[in-house]
Amino acid sequence: MDSLIPFTTSGSLVDCVDRKMLVILRDGRKLHGVLRSYDQFANLVLEDTVERIYHGNAFAESWHGLFLIRGENVVLLGEIDLDKEEDVPLKQVDYNILVEYHKQEADAKKEREEIKAQILYEQKGFSKEGGEGDGY
Question: Where are the coiled-coil regions (predicted)?
Answer without folding.
Answer: none
